[in-house]
Design a protein that fits this description.
This is Glutathione S-transferase. This protein is α/β, with parallel strands linked by helices. 39% of the residues lie in helices and 15% in strands. It has a ten-stranded mixed sheet, sandwiched between helices. Strand 7 and strand 8 form a beta hairpin.
Length: 335
């Protein structure tokens, strides 16, 4: 993998998932170009590349386009070998890093965080935004339902705060892995808590605040200072239009070799999948109504790669974890 190909990040500023990637890029000092997106569909800039996936962020390295922040960060870790990585090196620290990732994403921390968005935010009152998020989550969340879920969500966040306060930060360390600077483990743990703590009205001050969790809140503040300092020390990323981003991507070579389909993979054997088969790929939790269909390029235990139906422009990479791959019939997949 080359660190010389253009990196283009499709995102919008207040996406908490996008912040994970932006923070990583700044803390590691990796230059990138950004193509800013609207918070709701449609996103014609991505349609230009034949991409139907609706979640943000998306990152391209050359003509390889990566979905899901976990895969994006894993790929970025492999780039620029001359720049120190943010990921852990020892096995026990890698275990902490991975467990924190699973806790935040799969363990429900971010789901609880979403339930604490104040209902009086102007954006949440926009009917277009409401319809978009109903399509995104598969549920229409009413004001009454949101109010009923709020106490449970507050309690979940309190438990996470308490876990960090009374275990990892109990000894007075600055960073989760006792490093001199923030690492990937800090990013994996901090992003939903940082998002909530910076959102007025999200957390009830009598239950979740710096008074109850001083070490955790101090860590969040340290992290913000470190990210701000890293950002200030680097050139501002160029912002390009969708047309400019498409040109930048499609005129580049691919970042990775094409790869193969693992014929022994259980999914491949069950569905009779081979290289070149027409498949549909989509996330299993949110955004499941938007499925990318294309030619199967590569299938490994950790990753699936397709060439979208629009064809020839990019290769689309998705992690196996949290995504479904199925044979597709016809021009679209209704599976």
């Amino acid at each position: 993998m080359s660190g010389e190909l253009p990196i283009v990040l499709y995102h919008y500023a207040y996406s908490p998932y996008a912040r994970r990637v932006v923070w990583y890029l700044h803390l590691r000092g990796i230059p990138y170009t950004q193509c800013l997106q609207p918070p709701i569909l449609p996103r014609p800039d991505l349609t230009r590349l034949g991409i139907k996936y609706r979640r943000i962020p998306i990152l391209s390295v050359g003509r390889d386009v990566y979905l899901d922040t976990r895969l994006i960060i894993a790929k970025l870790e492999q780039l620029f070998p001359s720049i120190p990585k943010l990921g852990a090196s020892s096995l026990d620290q890698k275990a902490v890093e991975r467990l924190l990732e699973r806790l935040s994403v799969d363990g429900g921390v971010f789901t609880s965080a979403m339930r604490l968005i104040p209902a009086d935010l102007p954006l949440l009152k926009d009917p277009k935004f409401q319809r978009d998020r109903a399509d995104f989550t598969g549920q229409k969340l009413t004001r009454e339902t949101a109010a009923a879920l709020r106490p449970e969500a507050v309690n979940e966040i309190r438990q996470v705060m308490d876990l960090l306060e009374t275990t990892l930060f109990a000894d007075g360390r600055d960073w989760i892995l006792k490093s001199s600077n923030p690492t990937l483990a800090d990013i994996e743990a901090v992003w939903p808590l940082h998002w909530l703590s910076s959102m007025p009205g999200a957390l009830p001050a009598d239950q979740v605040s710096a008074a109850q969790f001083p070490k955790v809140y101090a860590w969040i503040q340290r992290f913000q200072k470190a990210v701000s300092a890293a950002k200030a020390s680097q050139p501002k990323p160029a912002t390009v239009s969708g047309e400019e981003a498409e040109k930048l991507i499609t005129q580049s070579p691919f970042n990775e070799a094409e790869g193969q389909v693992d014929a022994a993979d259980g999914l491949a054997t069950f569905h009779g999948l081979s290289k070149g088969a027409k498949v549909a790929v989509w996330p299993t939790d949110t955004g499941a109504n938007h499925r990318d269909v294309g030619k199967l390029v590569s299938l490994t235990p950790t990753e699936v790669v397709i060439e979208p139906e629009q064809g020839g422009k990019v290769r689309l990479h998705a992690p196996r974890h949290g995504f479904r791959v199925r044979p597709a019939e016809g021009p679209t997949a209704n599976l």
